[in-house]
Specification:
The complex is a heterodimer of chains A (320) and B (185). By secondary structure, chain A is mostly beta strands. Chain A has one domain: TolB, C-terminal domain (Neuraminidase, 6 Propeller), CATH 2.120.10.30. Chain A has a four-stranded antiparallel sheet with strand order 1-24-23-22, with no helix packed on it. In chain A, a hairpin with a 5-residue loop joins strand 14 and strand 15. Chain A is elongated, with a radius of gyration of 27 Å. With 185 residues, chain B is of the alpha+beta class. Helices cover 29% and strands 18% of the residues of chain B. Chain B has a two-stranded antiparallel sheet with strand order 1-6. A two-stranded antiparallel ribbon of chain B has the order 2-5. The longest helix of chain B is centred in the first third of the chain and has 30 residues. The chains are: A mainly beta (320), B alpha+beta (185). At the A-B interface, loops of A face helix 3 and helix 4 of B.
């Protein structure tokens, strides 16, 4: 009798031990999905639909490896620079040509005569539309990251994020001057470039506009490299720019209005020439969270072209 | 006749099998020891490129506060005035006032260098590894604030509680001679 009781007791003990061990596999407490330390900027991503004055009218899927830079020519052909190739699309989005350029195209610009200027990290290369390299300029230095190019008939401006300076060249490749370098003796505060986003363009009067992203400032320079105007606005709201690297890119409409793209709060907006906020082109909900590097271009019909690497497409916006 | 001589009997087969198993076991142990001594001890570390700053590093670690800390990769930092990792979103005045700080434990110290640059350093004793600053820095800056397991605090548990709860499997065992890993650097 005692042996039987002992056996039953041992059996119960064994089953209890087994249950205790197996419960670890099946009775896991569900992990909480709420994060008590959430970094929440959702309120700043809400945009009143009444200020969204543009709509997406075309989406050109871009094939190939990582896409990086965007440009448009006088005939509104669209140029996309990737890590190794240059792709040329018609205005309607048909692929017209693509060719290997042998390196990463960090930035590009097509001038009035159709020459394609490519920013290849530390030097400029000039190609034609058939895929022939016409010229390669001397490399700058190992720190250089050429993030933007803009050409007129007389001058070529090159933004170097690594060295925090803008170079002014002659179209033949002769370096004329360095613009915006920090120089306390001249009272030049310099560009603040925490990450490789440093854009420039030439305005309607051929003045040079440079984004100083660390200060959320737009600075205008004359051809002698002297600052002639600036505007800035720091704000997470629609009227300004936030973080340490915004806006990341800009373009200009025929009206002189600035088109800007941002990271952190992914959005595309328009500011008037005096810097005041005008309207939204694309709100944050139009982009995947974490989208960065939204390169911009404007064609002859004032369509806004956006290079969205995350969606692998050139997205075209037109006024509603 | 010769073929019959070559046949193993059961005893010889068992003996050979045991000898082979022992040799295999010893070889395996020797290889394991050699590998460990060559590669160093294995420790837990998280891959910052997989980290989504879910906050579980702060709440799941058996150590309190967590062994996961924010590490500042100074070579990547832009020394920004408006640091997305330091300031609460929408802060109007860029001052060190408590209400402007993003860090829930005020573990980030801001010090002036020269106009317009500021240095940000982490007080490891105060940091709880929540990753709030990492998310802010990654979204608006260049991601120089990154979470890492601090090996002078980590107990190197056999089964890491954070690794078990990590939604992106960012934790893995790495060799102690490569105990820290940073992204973008």
């Amino acid at each position: 009798m005692n042996k039987r009781l002992l056996l039953i007791f041992a059996l119960i003990l064994l089953l209890a031990s087994l249950w205790f061990m197996l419960s670890d596999f099946f009775d896991d407490e569900p992990l909480t999905t709420t994060n008590p330390y959430e970094y929440n900027i959702d309120n700043y991503k809400i945009v009143d639909s009444s200020v969204i004055a543009w709509k997406e009218t075309m989406n050109i899927p871009v094939t190939g490896d990582t896409i990086r830079s965007l440009g448009v020519d006088q005939q509104d052909n669209i140029y996309v620079g990737t890590f190794h190739k240059l792709l040329i699309y018609s205005k309607e989005g048909h692929l017209k040509n693509s060719f290997d350029v042998g390196g990463k195209v960090y930035s590009l610009f097509v001038n009035r005569s159709g020459k394609i200027f490519l920013g290849m990290k530390d030097h400029i290369e000039i190609w034609n539309r058939s895929g022939r390299k016409l010229q390669s300029w001397d490399a700058l230095n190992s720190k250089s990251i050429i993030t933007s190019i803009h050409c007129s008939d007389e001058l070529v401006y090159v933004a170097d994020a690594g060295n925090r300076v803008v170079y002014q060249y002659k179209p033949e490749g002769m370096l004329q001057m360095r613009i915006g370098e920090k120089d306390s003796t001249k009272g030049s505060p310099g560009f603040v470039i925490p990450s490789p986003y440093f854009d420039l363009l030439q305005g309607r009067d051929d003045e040079l506009w440079v984004v100083n992203p660390g200060r959320h400032q737009f600075e205008a320079y004359n051809e002698k490299g002297q600052m002639i105007s600036s505007w800035k606005k720091t704000s997470m709201q629609l009227d300004g720019f936030s973080g340490c690297c915004n806006p990341t890119h800009m373009a200009m409409l025929s009206t002189g209005d600035f088109v800007t793209s941002e990271k952190g709060i992914e959005r595309i907006k328009i500011h008037r020439p005096d810097g005041s906020f005008a309207e939204v082109v694309a709100p944050p909900e139009a982009f995947e969270e974490g989208t960065v590097g939204l390169d911009l271009a404007v064609d002859s019909e004032d369509r806004i072209l956006v290079l969205d690497k995350f969606k692998g497409a050139v997205r075209i916006f037109e006024r509603k | 006749m010769e073929a019959e001589e070559k046949k193993y009997n059961r005893r010889e087969f068992v003996n050979t099998g045991i000898r082979f198993s022992i040799a295999l076991g010893l070889g395996g142990v020797a290889a394991l020891v050699a590998k460990r001594s060559a590669g160093g001890e294995l420790v837990w570390q998280l891959d910052p490129s997989k980290c989504i700053q879910c906050g579980r590093c702060a709440t799941s670690c058996v150590s309190s506060p967590s062994a996961v800390k924010c590490i500042h990769v100074y070579d990547m930092c832009g020394y920004c005035d408006l640091c997305g990792g330091y300031f609460r979103p929408g802060t109007k005045d860029l001052t060190t006032a408590a209400e402007n700080q993003l860090c829930p434990t005020a573990a980030i110290k801001r010090s002036y260098i020269e106009e317009p640059f500021f240095e940000y350093s982490i007080d490891e004793d105060l940091c709880i590894g929540c990753g709030k600053c990492v998310k802010g820095c990654g979204a608006f800056g260049n991601g120089s604030l990154q979470l890492q397991v601090s090996h002078n605090i980590c107990l190197n548990c056999n089964e890491c509680a954070i690794a078990r709860d990590c939604p992106t499997d960012a934790f893995s065992r790495v060799s102690s001679d490569k105990a820290y890993s940073f992204k973008g650097f």
